[in-house]
């Protein structure tokens, strides 16, 4: 659960989630849980954006497009700057990974959503292909001797 603590009582804590629901959590449950404080020491958070490109795509061009998308996305910080890496060479694609920092953890849906939508649009414009796995299945049926299936005809 992600949200802001709005009240701490003797027996329970009230948390307002990102979708504005008020949840009451017993303090005994909280004391047994691992808690991540996204707002301290500051509210910025890093997102990892993964995308695969075709092996015949221009990797440097894809890097430039990804960085441009990130720097023009509202809520993404300029410092630290977005970084793009080749994550690995997959079976069907060159897998890229981009780290972007957003100014507030509450943008955890908006920022990645905007970036992924822009990736689809801009990669189509720039003719950078996002491949999908294709498998060819070849059925190899053994040839059954006709004599084994039907007895020879006597003439």
Automatic annotation (TrEMBL):
Q: How does the record classify its membrane topology? A: Multi-pass membrane protein
Q: Can you say where in the cell this protein is located? A: Cell membrane
| Record key words, sorted | Cell membrane, Membrane, Transmembrane, Transmembrane helix
**Got a GO cellular component term for this one?**
plasma membrane
Q: Which GO terms describe its molecular function?
A: mechanosensitive monoatomic ion channel activity
Q: Which residues form the Mechanosensitive ion channel MscS domain?
A: 3-39
Pfam families assigned: MS_channel_2nd (PF00924), MS_channel_3rd (PF21082)
Where does this protein chiefly localize?
membrane
SUPFAM superfamilies hit by this protein: Mechanosensitive channel protein MscS (YggB), C-terminal domain, Sm-like ribonucleoproteins
InterPro entries recorded: LSM_dom_sf (IPR010920), MS_channel_C (IPR049278), MscS_archaea/bacteria_type (IPR045275), MscS_beta-dom_sf (IPR023408), MscS_channel_2nd (IPR006685), MscS_channel_C_sf (IPR011066)
Family in the record:
Belongs to the MscS (TC 1.A.23) family.
Q: What is this protein called?
A: Truncated small-conductance mechanosensitive channel
Organism of origin: Methanocella paludicola (strain DSM 17711 / JCM 13418 / NBRC 101707 / SANAE)
